[in-house]
Amino acid sequence: MNNYIVAGSKSWNYRVYNEIIKNYQGKWHFIQSLEMLNIDKTNKINPRYIFFLHWSWKVPDELLNEYECVCFHMTDVPYGRGGSPLQNLIIRGHRHTKLTALKMTQEFDAGAVYCKENLCLIGNAEEIYIRATYLSAQMIKDIIQQEPEPIDQFGEITIFKRRKPAESEMPELDSLPKLYDFIRMLDVEGYPHAYIEHQGFKYSFRRSALYDGRIIADVTITPIGEKE
After folding, report:
1. pTM exceeds 0.70 for this model
2. Does the pLDDT of residue 141 top 80, yes or no?
């Protein structure tokens, strides 16, 4: 019986792991912090694969060299390698993408590909991340059953840059759909919500909906400089 590790830093990662993944064949372990992901502890488990559902830290090279590490990237690589893939896709007008399972290497998002599946980008960012996690669970099942040989990426490389907190301030946009996309793509933990600042106050927007020629959203108002 094979051992497996699933790493995920978001609450919905553990929910999907608990609900689906841990019931697959094999012995499963879930970790959610960098401290738990060290070579000594990993060697004791000796996993066939380490799957990364959502991970914000660099994986140590010694783990990449010793074990088969698989991450799930929300673009049709080599298009969209790099940071903030969901936000970069939405701001470019994409409504659909590929969720790619790829072998992790020292170069971010440059590894060989195990498989790709279609992913819809409708809804707010958290909804899309949850949707992607459920899809990742199905892809994990396929990988452990078939143990496919990953195939090297090919095609033109496009690099995405990770978004900075200051980039959550609303820019000038020329349409309501673009404004709606800007709000929804930042509606998730880990990114400052879309905001504007006016006369000493910060207005942060969440839970937006676009219909009947208008946007409806929840707004949190705080003095500039105070935590929401």
Report:
1. yes
2. yes
